[in-house]
Amino acid sequence: MNKAIFLDRDGVINEVLSKRVKFVNRPEDFHLLDGVGEAIHILNQLDYKVFVVTNQGGVGLGYMKESTLLKVHEKMLEDLATYDAKIDDILFCPHRPDEGCVCRKPEPEMLFQLAKKHDVDLSKSYMVGDRQPDIEAGNKAGVKTVLVGNRKEKAAADYVFSNLLAFSHWLKSEIDMTTQ
Question: CA–CA separation, 13 vs 50, rounded Å?
């Protein structure tokens, strides 16, 4: 079975609520956070499947069309490719926050779908997010959870790091220590 890293998108991979952009509703609003390309490249080298699981309620609320969201994701993949970093699959919940759907985090459905599709052992996998719903989804799915970012988010994560690159370096050092 495969091991995986499930990544939230906004606030983990790309800027959000910054001076430059409040929400990512167009490809030109998408900007990688510092170190993310290198971080995902490291995760790829560690033989983890890397997935994006993201709530995109802006589609259901009418702020963007699903076709535009797909273009945002194309830009993300292109930007990451410049670092020789790749995402193996992307799932998103397009529903409004108040719809009560089963795919919207904090529900774990997106993680379960990807695990089934890609033969992933959830007990050897991680969910990385910057908010409580990400961590809760990871806990419900039975993966280790990682909270990143500098916001004052309160979440019961297994690990806390300032950003995805710090987590990637830590994971690499953990693997290096077990293989020595």
Answer: 12
Catalytic residue among 10, 79, 130, 134: 10
Write the single-letter amino acid at 113.
Q
Average pLDDT, rounded, for the chain: 94
Residue 10 falls in the annotated catalytic set: yes
pTM of the model: 0.95
> C-alpha distances in angstroms, 177 versus 42, 49, 74, 106, 121?
16, 21, 36, 33, 21
Cβ contacts of 164-169, under 8 Å, gap ≥ 24: 164/7, 164/12, 164/13, 164/33, 164/35, 164/36, 164/39, 164/40, 164/128, 165/34, 165/35, 165/36, 165/38, 165/39, 165/42, 167/39, 167/128, 168/38, 168/39, 168/40, 168/42, 168/43, 169/42
Question: CA-CA distance, 8 to 5, in Å (whole number)?
Answer: 10
Q: Who wins on pLDDT, 180 or 157? A: 157
Give the pLDDT of residue 159: 96
